[in-house]
Structure formats: structure tokens, C-alpha cells
Amino acid sequence: MMSDVFYYNTHLHITTWVIGIILFLVVLNLLKKSNEKAAKITHMVLRLFYLFIIITGALLWFNNYSQAGGSLFTESVVKSLAGVWVIGAMEMVLGATKRGKSAFAGWLQLIIALILVLALGFGKLQLGILP
User: How does DSSP assign 70-119, residue by residue?
Assistant: First the structure.
């Protein structure tokens, strides 16, 4: 039963962040095309998905890593913090783009945080795809 709960929690979490990334790209495209109203609405939907991402990630963490010990616990906390960093970097990119300023710092942070999250989530942590 627990593996079923984990299975569905994991897929829900992955689905929410895939939709979040797609929405991020849509908002970015709308901002570049100066479609303010559509960008604002889509950005609010994206922010709702940030909440879904955080909630599903917290459920995964509490169900699978909160009782873990040693390096596994530490890596799961670092992955969680890096996930929040990804969300913050996405907001930095969108904010700078909306104001017409350089988004280089946001993009750099987004790339670094995303690599860290993917490496820990799919590779290093026990529930990833690597042994």
C-alpha cells in the first residue's frame, strides 16, 4: 500500500512541475509578445502551480525522507531547498522580463538550481532512477 501512495505522490509531483515549467515558458513567451493581460492571467495560474509543486513535494518528503537518517536526510533537504530556489529563480526571470531588464542572473540561478534538483531527485536520492 505504501508503495502505491509513493507511486501516485511521485507522479503527481512530477506532473505538477512539468506543467509548471510549461506554464513558465508560456508566460515568458506572452511577456515577450507584450500580451500583458494573458501573461498576467497565466502567471497567476503558474503561481497556483507553484503551490501544488510545494505541497506535493512536501508530501513526498514527509512520507519518504523525514525519518531518514544521515546523508539521505541531508540530500533530501538540499533537494527541497533547491526546488524552492528553482521557483524563486523562475519568478526572477519573469519579473526581469516583465520590466524589460536583463534576466541573466535569474537564468543562471534557474539553470544551476534545476541541475541540482534533477541530479538529486532522479539520480542521487534512493527513489530516483539510478541505483
Answer: HHHHHHHHHHHHHHHHHHHHHHHHHHHHHHT---HHHHHHHHHHHHHHHI
State yes or no: pLDDT of 1 exceeds 50. no
For residue 62, which amino acid is it?
F
pTM of the model: 0.87
Cα end-to-end span (Å), the chain: 23
Q: Residue 130, SS3? A: coil
Spatial separation of the C-alpha atoms in residues 46 and 86, rounded to whole Å = 13
| pLDDT class of 123 with cuts at 50, 70, 90 | confident
The set of cell numbers assigned to 64 is: 519518504
Distance, in Å, from the CA atom of 27 to the CA atom of 91, rounded to the nearest integer, reads 11
